Amino acid sequence: MSLAKGLVIAAPRSGSGKTVxxxxxxxxxxxxxxxxxxxxxxxxxxxxxxxxxxALRDAVNLDPWSMRPARLKHLAxxxxxxxxxxxxxxxxxxxxxxADGFGSTGDLAQLLDLPVxxxxxxxxxxxxxxxxxxxxxxxxxxVRIGGVILNRVASMKHERMLVGAxxxxxxxxxxxxxxxxxxxxxxxxxxxxxPGEVQAFETFLDAAAEAVGNYVDLARLRALAAxxxxxxxxxxxxxxxxxxxxxxxxxxxxxxxxxxxDGWRAMGAELSFFSPLVDEAPRADAxxxxxxxxxxxxxxxxxxxxxxxxxxxxxARDRNALIYGECGGFMVLGEALVDKAGHSHxxxxxxxxxxxxxxxxxxxxxxxLAQAGDLPWPNRLNGHEFHYSSAKQSRMTPLFxxxxxxxxxxxxxxxxxxxxxxxxxxxxxAA
Length: 431
Hints:
It comes from Devosia yakushimensis. The protein is α/β, with parallel strands linked by helices.
């Protein structure tokens, strides 16, 4: 059986339009009958939701900082199964990495030996694009720039100037997408909003597909794809939280990594899902309850009024089920959540903490974690932190000893009371 092929869509910097171009590529190729599997570099939750909607296939995260090389190759191979092309959207700029210098899109492209399609924002530049692209193409020998897609091109004259300059680099220009206000995606404090919240998302996606289909040479792009490396089977390194895991999933608890859920299913766990926003309780026989991250601060009144949900959590605690919350889920396990307007909303009350949306700047970065709870995972873990809230809590055992990507010690994270535990960290993989 021939190996699936892949490409990485990257950019010199954030804000160049690689998400919109990737969405347009997925939708345009799907219109042509090409089966494309989407993936996202790094720990992002929101871009994969968009990518999945565009491809009509769930996207997967490939995180070269948090995940072992064998795990990355295996996940990429599994994701590409049944598809003709794996399309991986990058994160930030091509060579932007964590504080320790590892985990860039370039690292992932080199590991998977996939060509990079560089999306370059052509706004307010012309011939200078050539040294920019040449610099990226020659920066690291193991990273191949297969082609360039120009974005936000002002006119035909502008396009001719750009393409003429690029000719000297020897790197093919695959297309030039004109400026188009219809291709802007709204944002929220944690990044892009979720696709279900974008009015007329399908209209936006149609506009992206039309732009890419009309201005990008899709046949030439597909011809640049390279086979994925052969991957040995990889056992998930984060075992299931229990045999029967009840998982909160709705607009307030939307941040779930597919590789975790797939790994738990593969290891025999039975997963069920419930919506706290419609006051559903976790199933009564669950031996573990997982509250993932999301946007609980946008749904304070509904969560405060969700009496069946909160009673179900208390019952799970009383039967000694493991209850684990990450970021937004950690906030909901507390006594109160104070939203950005200063309104306080009563939460589950299983941990003595109050959280507030009050930070002027986001807390962001990779985390090296060592756990002190009953999580059935290795002691040392890799994760990510991203939030604008703060937590005021009583003295209690923290869930994690923590360090940043450089190994610099951070204050302990989270809280543990018996088998109820949580923190702001989103755990990605074993260290």
